[in-house]
Design goal:
This protein is α+β, with helices and mostly antiparallel strands and 281 residues long. The chain is built from nine helices and 14 strands. 32% of the residues lie in helices and 27% in strands. The model has no long low-confidence stretch (mean pLDDT 96). This is 4-amino-4-deoxychorismate lyase.
Length: 281
C-alpha cells in the first residue's frame, strides 16, 4: 500500500513513471527529504519537519519550498491513505531535471513501516560504532560539505547499515575523527543517566532531531534534566541506557554495542517510550 502525491496537488500512480532520468535528485543526489511518522492520520512533528526541509534546501541553495503547497500535498496523501494506522510519509524535493527550466521536483509518498523497524522498537538492537571521517570543528569552516543537511546523498548511510548487518548488528553509530559521538545513519543518539537525558549538538554536524526534540520536551515536563552537549564513547557504554531516536523508529534501545552487552535498560526504555507517546496523547 502506497500513496503518491505530487507537489502540484495531483495524485499519481506509485507504480508509474514520474521522474525524468536526468533529474538531479536521481543523478547526483542533489535534493533534500524528510520522513514523517503518521499515526491514526495525524502527522507527528510536521511543522519541525517542514522547518528542517527549508533549512536543508537553503543549505543546498534550492528554491525556498512552498510551505502551503507541501501542506496541501501532505493532506492529499493523508486523506487518501487506507493502510495501517501508522505510516511513513516521505517528502522529497530535488533540483529538478538537469536540462529543465529550473522548476524543482517535489512529491510526498505514504509508505507502510517495515516489519523490521516495528520489531526492533520492542526488542531493541545491536549497534556498532563506525568512523565518519570528519572533525566537528570543520562544520563551520566548510559549509559546502552540507553537514547537518538532510540530503538525498544517503549512499554512505546505507553502506554503514549494510556494514552493521554484515557484522552481527542492526544499527550503527557514527564517531567523529576526534572520537566524539555523532549520530546513527538514520537516527539521533540519546543517553540516559539517572534522570538526565543527553544528545549530541547539531553544531557537531548532525541533523536536528524531531523525535529527540519531542522526547526531551516530554521529559522536561516530568522533571527530567535534558542536555545537548558533546558525547564520548565512554558516555555510551557507561550510561544507564543508550537509545536511537527517529520518526519511524520512535525510541529504540541499544542493548549491545560493539559486541558487548549494555546494562539492562528495558524498564527505562518503557518509561521513555511512554514519555514520548505522552507528547501526542
Amino acid at each position: 500500500m502506497r500513496v503518491l502525491a505530487m507537489l502540484d496537488g495531483n495524485l499519481a500512480d506509485p507504480e508509474g513513471r514520474h521522474l525524468r532520468v536526468d533529474d538531479l535528485g536521481l543523478m547526483r543526489g542533489d535534493g533534500v527529504f524528510e520522513t514523517v511518522l503518521v499515526v491514526d492520520g495525524v502527522p507527528r512533528e510536521l511543522g519541525p519537519h517542514l522547518d528542517r526541509l527549508e533549512r536543508s534546501a537553503a543549505m543546498l541553495e534550492l528554491p525556498v519550498p512552498d510551505r502551503a503547497a507541501w501542506e496541501r500535498c501532505v493532506r492529499l496523501v493523508l486523506d487518501t491513505w487506507s493502510g495501517p494506522s501508522e505510516m511513513a510519509l516521505k517528502l522529497v524535493y530535488t533540483r529538478g531535471p538537469e536540462f529543465g527550466d529550473g522548476t524543482p521536483t517535489g512529491f510526498a509518498m505514504g509508505l507502510p513501516i517495515g516489519e523490521k523497524v516495528l520489531r526492533n522498537r520492542e526488542a531493541g538492537v545491536r549497534a556498532v560504532t563506525l568512523e565518519r571521517g570528519f572533525d566537528p570543528e570543520i562544520v563551520s569552516r566548510a559549509p559546502w560539505l552540507l553537514l547537518g543537511a538532510k540530503t538525498l546523498s544517503y549512499a554512505v548511510n546505507m553502506a554503514a547499515l549494510r556494514w552493521a548487518e554484515a557484522h552481527d548488528a542492526e544499527e550503527a553509530i557514527f564517531l567523529a575523527a576526534d572520537g566524539s559521538v555523532l549520530e546513527g545513519p538514520t537516527s539521533n543518539v540519546v543517553v540516559a543517566q539517572g534522570r538526565t537525558l543527553r544528545t549530541t549538538p547539531p553544531s557537531s554536524g548532525i541533523l536536528r532531531g524531531t523525535t529527540q526534540g519531542a522526547l526531551f520536551r516530554a521529559a522536561e515536563r516530568e522533571g527530567w534534566v535534558t542536555k545537548v552537549e558533546p558525547l564520548t564513547l565512554d558516555d555510551l557504554t557507561e550510561a544507564d541506557g543508550l537509545f536511537l531516536a527517529s520518526s519511524v523508529r520512535k525510541i529504540t534501545r541499544v542493548h549491545t554495542l560493539d559486541g558487548k552487552p549494555l546494562p539492562d535498560s528495558g524498564a527505562l526504555h518503557s518509561e521513555l517510550a511512554a514519555l514520548y507517546e505522552s507528547e501526542y496523547a
